[in-house]
Write a structure and sequence with these properties.
Blueprint (H helix, E strand, L loop, with lengths): L10 E5 L2 E8 L3 E6 L4 E3 L13 E3 L5 H4 L2 H12 L5 E5 L3 H15 L6 E5 L4 E5 L2 E7 L7 E9 L2 E4 H8 L2
Parallel strand pairs: 4-5, 5-6, 6-7
Antiparallel strand pairs: 1-2, 2-3, 3-4, 8-9, 9-10, 10-11
Length: 169
């Protein structure tokens, strides 16, 4: 695989039928998107192309993973005029995140509303007719989650990670 041009901010990796687009620098920012699934993973940097996604998954409450959420919501409202996105996150941080968005809404002078979905390890949610997500435990100094996406192919659920492995055999 040839390296991307140096002037590009976002990197893109092809994993079977899925593209993982985004940027991550440990302790500074992480924002990733899987366009084919319509999901964004973490909001550590407000990437304009990610603002239209209806499903956002926050792994944990550190600033490098959630700090740009107000800016991302602002971009969403400004450019897309869309309703509040559904934001999945560890259940233990929902109230704090919602409370933090209140003062930011006042500063911005528009509503930075989200449809917050608190999740615990093992929780599953249906995102659309053919797409499910399951939260799993990760190890971090603060409450954190990982997310496993499963798609229905010909009536059978297939984990996207398994698809990735099979496509690279």
């Amino acid at each position: 695989m040839k390296p991307p041009p140096r002037h590009r901010l976002l990197l893109e990796v092809q994993a079977g039928p899925y593209r993982l687009r985004g940027i991550s620098l440990g302790g500074v920012y992480t924002s990733l998107q899987v366009p084919e699934l319509g999901v964004v993973l973490d909001a550590g940097m407000p990437v304009r192309q990610f603002a239209a996604a209806d499903h956002l998954f926050i792994s944990h409450g550190h600033g490098d993973h959630i700090g740009a959420l107000p800016a991302l919501l602002g971009i969403r409202g400004l450019l897309h005029g869309k309703k509040a996105p559904r934001v999945y996150m560890p259940a233990s941080i929902v109230d704090t995140v919602k409370a933090a968005l209140g003062p930011m809404s006042q500063l911005q002078r528009y509503d930075l509303a989200i449809d917050a979905v608190g999740m615990k390890p093992g929780d599953e949610r249906k995102l659309r007719a053919d797409l499910w997500v399951r939260a799993f435990r990760t190890h971090h100094p603060v409450p954190s989650l990982g997310y496993l996406f499963s798609v229905l192919l010909e009536g059978h659920a297939v984990d996207t990670y398994r698809e990735f492995l099979e496509s690279n055999e």
